[in-house]
């Protein structure tokens, strides 16, 4: 009896094995093991549990594998593992596959033509790999059920496959991020089921087919980046009434923006930046009532911002920078309830910023630099505590900075140089926790810098060319992330605080043209991250610190036009990174060193020091002896003067 049951079990096992065996006698288990062998390259990891087993259903428990009731593989999902290999032709034997996803596993080689046997496939995702060669369009002819084809970010070349036009169920097509050439096939307009079409970041040329406007179900159309199309945006795209995303950035577009795009009531994102579009911004784009993101930057657009855009009540980002726009910024811009980003830099805008800008409590980024704007800076830019970047430089704004900015803890960047701003700098700005960049130079700020500073994130502090007085606060030493300190051309006085040189990452310091006195702190030698020092045009005295040679990364040292004395430290000759040295117009003495790095500096670096001898002057006192002879020279001059006075009186 037991023998009967044994034979029965063996018979059932053989039947099951036949069920899960593909053509050519390979079982799905064997096919998967062959795939593993080809996909695993040197230093690869992943699919470690794909091992041989006598169980007919063992492969159904492999990671990324799903089977049907007959133990046939219907889904294969291998992603985010560094495999480095190729796909073997045996993959065509998995003819029950419905979902094939092999994404971001760094596979290379060509796509096997045997994949044409995968006639049940609905999802075909091989994105983010290194597959190369032409995409074999013939493998698609039998995939009549295919809904998703994603080959984004590979190395495919050649023409786009036209066989796609016969796939009546295809919804998602992504060939972006490859090297396809030629034109977009006009026949792609036959794929009426298409909802996503991404052909961006290729080398496509020719005209964009107007027939794509017939894709009535299309929700995303992405054609930009690196493509170089001829002509402009087809007006027929205004018929894509289901469209939510239209991205045609940086693809050599010319002509005007079609008014018909205003018909796209569901459009949320319109990206047309970095082209050569001309003409005015169509007022009919106000019909884009669902629009959230508008980017028309880096074109050659003219005219003004349309008054009709007040209807864009859902807009959150308006990017119009680097065009030829003019006129004032409409006051309604400050009333847009969702506005978070406004970037209008490098245009010809005039007038004032809308007074109510920022009152919606959502403003994050404001950049209107390099225009002709004037007036005061609106008070409520950070009303919602979300403002991150305030960039107003190179305009004609006047008046003081609001103390409210000192309470804006979300700020990361303030760039308002080259304006006519005055008053004192709000003290609390220097304590903002996230602020990394402060650029206030070329204004008329006055008063003193605050005695307390604690901004842990501040990396760049630029307040040169103002009217700031008082002493340099030692509290600057608390700015532990500070890399650049520029406070030149002000009215600062007092000494250089030694605490500044406790900042471990400080690379550049410029206090040029102030009224700084005292000596250069010896602690400067401990700030080994310094690459540039400019202390020129002050009233510094004392000697150049002997430990200056410890600044091994220093490339620029300028201490000219001060009252420095003593000899030039010979150790500087070993500072091989030092490209420029200027110690001119001081009271330095002794002989100019002639070895090492000094061979690269000309006489202008040392001029204006009456008691400094050229290196080849044989009458110059020996190095280190100048101090000893100075009293003798002074006594000799005094004796000669007395003798002359006696002779004159005798006569």
TrEMBL record:
Pfam families: LRR_1, LRR_8, LRRNT_2
Domain of life of the native organism: Eukaryota
Cellular component GO terms, alphabetical: membrane
SMART domains the UniProt entry points to: LRR_TYP
Main location: membrane
Ranges of residues in domain Leucine-rich repeat-containing N-terminal plant-type: 27-68
Location in the cell: Membrane
Keywords associated with the record: Glycoprotein, Leucine-rich repeat, Membrane, Repeat, Signal, Transmembrane, Transmembrane helix
InterPro entries assigned: DNA_repair-toleration (IPR053211), Leu-rich_rpt (IPR001611), Leu-rich_rpt_typical-subtyp (IPR003591), LRR_dom_sf (IPR032675), LRR_N_plant-typ (IPR013210)
Endpoints of the signal sequence: 1-25
Membrane topology field: Single-pass type I membrane protein
Annotated SUPFAM superfamilies: L domain-like (SSF52058), RNI-like (SSF52047)
Family stated for the protein in its record: Belongs to the RLP family.
Record protein name field: Leucine-rich repeat-containing N-terminal plant-type domain-containing protein
């Amino acid at each position: 009896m037991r023998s009967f049951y044994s034979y029965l079990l063996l018979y059932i096992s053989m039947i099951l094995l036949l069920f899960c065996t593909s053509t050519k006698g390979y079982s799905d288990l064997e096919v998967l093991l062959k795939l593993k062998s080809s996909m695993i390259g040197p230093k690869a990891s992943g699919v470690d549990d794909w091992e041989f087993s006598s169980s007919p259903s063992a492969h159904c428990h492999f990671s990324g594998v799903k089977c049907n009731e007959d133990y046939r593989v219907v889904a294969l999902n291998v992603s985010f593992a560094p495999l480095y290999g190729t796909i073997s032709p045996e993959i065509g034997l998995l003819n029950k596959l419905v979902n094939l996803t092999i994404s971001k596993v760094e596979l290379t080689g060509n796509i096997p033509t045997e994949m044409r046997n995968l006639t049940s496939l609905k999802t075909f995702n091989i994105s983010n790999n290194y597959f190369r060669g032409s995409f074999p369009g013939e493998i698609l002819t039998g995939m009549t059920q295919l809904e998703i084809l994603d080959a984004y970010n590979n190395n495919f070349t050649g023409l786009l496959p036209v066989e796609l036009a016969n796939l009546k169920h295809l919804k998602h097509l992504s060939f972006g991020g490859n090297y396809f050439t030629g034109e977009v096939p006009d026949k792609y307009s036959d794929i009426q089921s298409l909802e996503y079409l991404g052909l961006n970041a290729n080398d496509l040329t020719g005209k964009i087919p107007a027939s794509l406007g017939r894709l009535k179900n299309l929700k995303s159309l992405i054609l930009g980046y690196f493509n170089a199309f001829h002509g402009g945006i087809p007006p027929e795209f205004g018929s894509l009434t289901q469209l939510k995303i239209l991205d045609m950035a940086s693809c050599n577009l010319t002509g005007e923006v079609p008014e018909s795009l205003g018909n796209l009531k569901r459009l949320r994102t319109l990206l047309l930046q970095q082209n050569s579009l001309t003409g005015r911004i169509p007022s009919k784009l106000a019909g884009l009532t669902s629009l959230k993101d508008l980017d028309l930057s880096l074109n050659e657009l003219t005219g003004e911002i349309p008054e009709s855009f007040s209807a864009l009540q859902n807009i959150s980002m308006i990017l119009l920078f680097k065009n030829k726009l003019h006129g004032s910024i409409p006051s309604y811009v400050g009333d847009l309830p969702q506005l978070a980003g406004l970037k209008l830099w490098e245009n010809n805008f005039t007038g004032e910023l809308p007074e109510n800008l920022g009152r919606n409590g959502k403003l994050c980024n404001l950049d209107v630099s390099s225009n002709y704007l004037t007036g005061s800076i609106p008070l409520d830019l950070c009303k919602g505590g979300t403002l991150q970047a305030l960039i107003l430089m190179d305009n004609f704004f006047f008046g003081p900075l609001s103390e409210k900015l000192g309470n804006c803890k979300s700020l990361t960047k303030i760039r308002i140089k080259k304006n006519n701003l005055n008053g004192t700098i709000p003290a609390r700005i220097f304590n903002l926790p996230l602020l990394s960049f402060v650029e206030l130079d070329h204004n008329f700020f006055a008063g003193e810098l605050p005695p307390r500073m604690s901004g842990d994130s501040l990396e760049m502090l630029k307040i040169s060319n103002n009217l700031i007085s008082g002493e340099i606060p030692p509290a600057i030493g608390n700015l532990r992330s500070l890399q650049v300190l520029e406070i030149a051309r002000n009215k600062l006085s007092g000494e250089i605080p030694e605490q500044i040189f406790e900042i471990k990452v400080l690379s550049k310091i410029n206090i040029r043209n102030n009224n700084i006195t005292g000596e250069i702190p010896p602690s400067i030698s401990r700030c080994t991250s310094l690459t540039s020092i400019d202390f020129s045009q002050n009233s510094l005295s004392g000697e150049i610190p002997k430990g200056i040679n410890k600044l091994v990364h220093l490339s620029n040292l300028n201490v000219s036009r001060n009252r420095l004395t003593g000899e030039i430290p010979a150790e500087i000759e070993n500072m091989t990174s030092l490209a420029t040295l200027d110690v001119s117009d001081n009271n330095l003495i002794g002989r100019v060193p002639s070895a090492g790095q000094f061979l690269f500096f000309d006489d202008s670096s040392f001029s204006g020091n009456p008691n400094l001898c050229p290196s080849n002057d044989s009458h110059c006192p020996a190095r280190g002896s100048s101090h000893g002879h100075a009293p003798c020279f002074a006594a000799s001059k005094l004796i000669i003067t007395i003798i002359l006075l006696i002779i004159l009186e005798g006569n």
